[in-house]
Design goal:
Blueprint lengths: L1 H17 L4 H8 L3 H14 L14 H11 L3 E5 L7 H16 L5 E4 L3 H8 L10 E4 L9 H16 L15 H7 L3 H10 L4 E4 L1 E3 L5 H4 L5 H9 L2 E5 L2 E4 L7 H4 L8 H6 L2 E5 L6 H10 L4 E5 H7 L1
Parallel strand pairs: 1-9, 2-3, 2-4, 4-8, 8-9
Antiparallel strand pairs: 5-6, 6-7
Helix pairs in contact: 1-3, 1-4, 1-5, 2-3, 5-6, 6-7
Length: 310
């Protein structure tokens, strides 16, 4: 928790002393009590984070976070520096884990998709004093390859951390026809997971891109015909298997008719906290489209990606 605590100190200090925001406004924007904001401002002064300027000796970027929040209407951005492109997933996963630990409460219903960055995030979770949050898998995964085991490992670890039994979506992510999808939704267990997803208060999502190296294409989840159809529709990326174009608009509705995802872009817009964790050069266009969709309000990314987005 040290990383998130110190990042939050720098962020609150920047908002108060540089942006001239009141303690009440900061508390409302970050979901904190006014008394906690007051205590953290005091700590920022006593610890040396606040001197004549916001201490820049740390690896996070409060001024850049504020610029990204203003440009895309985000509730919060968490931006960190990474040592290399290869370290993006691991570094963002660690930062995202600390942020989620601050947000989550025993009453929350936590939805999660799957992906390598989210596995890095969950790997930084450990059993904690927080118990009770329900965990719901929102996208099917039983198609092929190691991603299936990865998705189940995500659920298992989160369930252990929170002391609850996660709800797994035991079905393929992509089926052969809308008729098969309708049939699967008649199964009470699958329908129950779809219903639970509507109650999510926090969503953890990666942002997929449309390039050849994307997991969906590399692992064979999406075949060449569907990939061509998505490209022709203008798709640049996806959130929880919901593809969108460069303007953040849902696209290729025929593909959505065969995906087993319990949330749509419209559903995501209704969830109080949607945390997307993504970065790297190849994902800039996808992240920009996701931000324009209005389907997320918290972004964890790296400094180079943030600068490209601005």
């Amino acid at each position: 928790m040290v990383f998130e605590h110190e990042r939050l100190l720098a962020k609150i200090a920047n908002m108060h002393y540089i942006e001239d925001r009141s303690q009440t406004e900061i508390a409302s924007l970050l979901g904190l009590s006014k008394s906690k904001v007051c205590r953290m401002l005091s700590e920022a002064r006593s610890s040396g984070v606040v001197q004549i300027y916001i201490n820049g000796a740390y690896s996070w970027c409060p001024a850049l976070e504020s610029a990204l929040e203003r440009k895309y209407g985000l509730r919060e951005a968490c931006i960190v520096e990474v040592a290399s492109e290869q370290a993006v997933s691991r570094t963002l996963g660690g930062a995202g884990a600390q942020l989620v630990k601050r947000l989550i409460s025993p009453r929350d219903v936590l939805g999660i998709s799957w992906g390598r960055t989210l596995l890095s995030l969950v790997s930084d979770f450990h059993p904690s004093t927080i118990s009770g949050p329900q965990v719901v898998q929102v996208a099917g995964c039983l198609n092929m390859g190691g991603e299936d085991m990865q998705a189940l490992e995500l659920l298992r670890r989160l369930g252990e951390c929170f002391g609850t039994q996660p709800l797994a979506l035991f079905c393929p992510s992509i089926v052969v026809s809308p008729h098969v999808k309708r049939g699967l939704l008649e199964d009470p267990k699958i329908a129950g997971v779809f219903e639970a997803a509507k109650r999510c208060t926090i969503m953890l999502a990666g942002i997929g891109e449309i390039g050849e190296t994307a997991t969906l294409f590399q692992q064979g989840y999406v075949g060449p015909e569907w990939r061509s159809a998505l490209a022709e529709s203008g798709a640049v990326g996806d959130l929880c298997l919901n593809f969108f174009n460069a303007d953040g608009e849902a696209c290729c509705p025929a593909f959505q008719d065969v995906t087993m995802t319990a949330v749509t872009l419209e559903d995501l817009r209704k969830i109080p906290s949607v945390v997307a964790v993504a970065g790297g050069r190849s994902k800039v266009d996808a992240i920009r489209g996701a931000l324009k969709s209005g389907a997320l309000n918290i972004l964890v990314t790296d400094k180079n990606t943030a600068e490209a987005l601005l």
